[in-house]
Amino acid sequence: MKLSAIAQEVRDNTGLPFTPRDAERVLAAALTSEDIWRIIDLADVPVMALCSALRAMERAGWLDFSRGRVALTPAGREVVREAGIAPALELRCGRCGGRGVELGPVAQIAEKFRKIAASRPEAIQQFDQGYVTEDSTLYRIAYLWNRGDLVGKELLVLGDDDLVSLAAALTRAPKRVVMLDIDERLVDFVRTVARQEGLEVEVLQHDLREPLPQGLLGAFDTFFCDPTESLRGFLAFAHRGLSALRGPGSAGYLGLTRREASLSKWRDIQRELLAAGAAITDLRDDFHDYVNWPYIETMRSWEHLPVKRVPGREEPWYRSALIRIELVEPARVENAPLSGDIFTDPEAATT
Amino acid sequence: MKLSAIAQEVRDNTGLPFTPRDAERVLAAALTSEDIWRIIDLADVPVMALCSALRAMERAGWLDFSRGRVALTPAGREVVREAGIAPALELRCGRCGGRGVELGPVAQIAEKFRKIAASRPEAIQQFDQGYVTEDSTLYRIAYLWNRGDLVGKELLVLGDDDLVSLAAALTRAPKRVVMLDIDERLVDFVRTVARQEGLEVEVLQHDLREPLPQGLLGAFDTFFCDPTESLRGFLAFAHRGLSALRGPGSAGYLGLTRREASLSKWRDIQRELLAAGAAITDLRDDFHDYVNWPYIETMRSWEHLPVKRVPGREEPWYRSALIRIELVEPARVENAPLSGDIFTDPEAATT
Question: Which residues of B touch A285 (CB under 8 A)?
Answer without folding.
Answer: 281-282
